[in-house]
Design goal:
The complex is a heterodimer of chains A (252) and B (95). With 252 residues, chain A is mainly α. Chain A is 67% helix and 0% strand. Chain A contains ten helices and no strands. The termini of chain A are far apart. In chain B, strands 2-1-3 form a three-stranded antiparallel beta sheet, covered by helices on one side. The chains are: A mainly alpha (252), B alpha+beta (95).
Amino acid sequence: MTDTATTYNYLLHLADNSMILGQRCGEWCGHGPVLEQDIALTNIALDLIGEARSLYQYAADLKGDGATEDTEAFLRDVLAYRNVLLVEQPNTDWAYTIVRQFFYDAFHALLHRELMNSTDQRLKEIATKTIKEVTYHLKWSSEWMIRLGDGTDISHEKMQKAVDDLWEYTGELFMPSAIETAAANAGIAPNLIDLKAEWNDKIKTIFEIATLSIPVSTYSQKGGKNGSHTEHLGFILTDMQFLQRAYPGAKW
Amino acid sequence: MNQKEWPLWEVFIRAKQGLNHKHVGSLHAADIKMAIENARDVYTRRLEGVSIWVVESKHLHASEPAEQDSLFEPAGDKIYRHPTFYDLPEELNHM
């Protein structure tokens, strides 16, 4: 793989993660448990989609040939998406939404801290902007983990259930795909394995305060990074891509 | 009051260094941390501020609207309290 192809594919992987999680968070718009949290989660959705846009624009510039951020986001099908399975899992309820967000934020913050040292100048600049947003996301989701984990019996039970169900999707975050390995070798990206211990520490710290238990299972679902997705992604893309599919090139 | 309702908070935002915090509105939150985060998300999305204060609304005490006459009207005919009656030296341009 040439250096440009490596960077292009790596950018798509990063962008897809943020795009799909942003889309999931956006589904809460107008349905949040209270107005203030509806706005909070919509802000996070917009941060994530904004980050995805910067990455797609960069990827489109590398690809050339008329590619734009829109062609990358709206005209690739499920098998071409490279996001991790965690971010495409359904909102289900507030507990699942918070736990999914916390697991991802803890990873996302470490990733962008490392990407600020990327040898790729443009990616470095995107990370420098993103890290501030992600730091807030992590603070927000950590506090909800604690508030509900260490809340009432019912809130604790719901949070623990969400943790138990989503845990098997966290391992994939740290299993490098061929693209990530190539990107790490090229100095563009960090070695994911180096981030895992720190991620575990963060989870452990917050779980202790939140009185939640970390599942013992080490089984991991995987495949998203190579295009093997759960059935949920197809439905997300159907919603997200409808307009560009039905009215190709539509603008507003 | 419905016990399941989160308490109400008043939000004050400082637009930039050197200015006072100004009251911008209110919101519901379960605790102090959530109140500040909610204020950040609801009232500073368009770069409105650099600092946030929140106060639980129950801690604010207001003057009685019925006492408006005795509290505020007496100041109405005392225009000499405005500093415009003083002759200022010319060098003081910014009073």
